[in-house]
């Protein structure tokens, strides 16, 4: 056995497939938050070289395009490798409510995402120093315009995730369209940043706001940013349930499903699991 083979065997011995998935979700979320704070530092800080070029709404347009592409690439990689890549607790909860993600993994995923967000902002502080805490940067925490109250922010966050998760649910039902999911989600994220960013903040991700807000000690509207996306995902799942196709006939219900214990990719589980199936045939139902 070569050294690399022994190393892989040792890694498998100490980390189960589920544990590796949780760890990867932590690392991906930390990486995206590090990137968010980094771009904020180099666009909005007084000495930022990009600040003279990207001003006002142009900055949000550039950020929207950039993070739309980044998220599309991450989700495409995740779907092709059958691994994690939600980076958003409301997405994990929404996929569970859509019955394409195992309930036992929801809490670990949410913990990995929230702690990953905190770690990613901390890493940006370590790399870029105190500049990330300047008022112009604010640890990359989002905030609404002064005329936006709590209910306005909550509504914007809810509607944003409702639209995104409804589109994802529609694509999951049709296997030939699943390949569109990364691009659709990326476009939604671009829209959140470009349209909602200058108005209500445009987080639509509890982890994305939680990490920066915790480091900044700025908890204004945090409840709206935490609850809104989850509420939107729940509403999308309820809408998908109301429009779900009829129960499959017994012959179709006996088709094999994903093997119990296999590495679960929430975005690539066969869409047949969206339909009503007997509980004993569906390892992802709780």
Envelope shape: globular
Class of secondary structure makeup: mainly alpha
Give the helices and strands as they follow along the chain. Answer: HHHHHHHHHH
| Major β-sheet annotation | none
Helix content: 55-70%
Number of helical segments with 4 or more residues: 10
Q: Tell me the strand percentage band.
A: under 5%
Question: What's the number of extended β-strand segments?
Answer: 0
Distance between the termini: 41 Å
Rg for CA atoms: 20 Å
List unreliable stretches of 5+ residues.
Answer: 252-286
Mean pLDDT: 84
Indicate the topology:
Blueprint: H1 3-14, H2 17-44, H3 57-81, H4 89-97, H5 106-128, H6 150-173, H7 181-200, H8 206-216, H9 222-242, H10 250-253
Helix pairs in contact: 2-3, 2-5, 3-7, 4-5, 4-9, 5-8, 6-7, 6-9, 8-9
Summarize the model shown:
The protein has 286 residues and is mainly α.
Question: What does this 3D model show about the protein?
Answer:
This protein is mainly alpha-helical and 286 residues long. The termini are far apart.
Tag the structure with descriptive keywords.
286 residues, 62% helix, single chain, mainly alpha, globular
């Amino acid at each position: 056995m070569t050294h690399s083979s022994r190393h892989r065997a040792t890694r498998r011995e100490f980390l189960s497939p589920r544990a590796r998935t949780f760890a990867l979700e932590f690392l991906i979320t930390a990486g995206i938050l590090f990137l968010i704070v980094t771009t904020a530092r180099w666009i909005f800080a007084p000495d930022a070289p990009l600040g003279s070029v990207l001003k006002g709404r142009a900055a949000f347009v550039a950020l929207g395009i950039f993070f739309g592409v980044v998220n599309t690439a991450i989700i495409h990689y995740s779907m092709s490798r059958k691994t994690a890549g939600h980076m958003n607790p409301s997405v994990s909860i929404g996929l569970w409510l859509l019955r394409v993600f195992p309930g036992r993994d929801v809490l670990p995923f949410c913990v990995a995402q929230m702690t990953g967000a905190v770690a990613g902002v901390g890493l940006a502080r370590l790399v870029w120093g105190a500049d990330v805490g300047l008022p112009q940067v604010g640890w990359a925490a989002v905030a609404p315009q002064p005329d936006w109250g709590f209910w306005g922010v909550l509504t914007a966050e809810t509607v944003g995730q409702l639209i995104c998760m409804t589109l994802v649910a529609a694509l999951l039902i049709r296997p030939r369209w699943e390949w569109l999911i990364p691009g659709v989600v990326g476009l939604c994220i671009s829209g959140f940043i470009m349209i909602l960013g200058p108005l209500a903040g445009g987080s639509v991700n509890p982890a994305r706001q939680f990490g920066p807000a915790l480091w900044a000690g700025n908890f204004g509207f945090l409840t709206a940013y935490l609850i809104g996306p989850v509420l939107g995902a729940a509403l999308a799942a309820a809408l998908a349930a109301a429009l779900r196709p009829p129960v499959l006939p017994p012959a179709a219900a006996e088709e094999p499903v994903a093997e119990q214990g296999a590495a679960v990719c929430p975005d690539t589980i066969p869409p047949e699991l969206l339909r009503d199936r007997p509980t004993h045939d569906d390892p992802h139902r709780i």
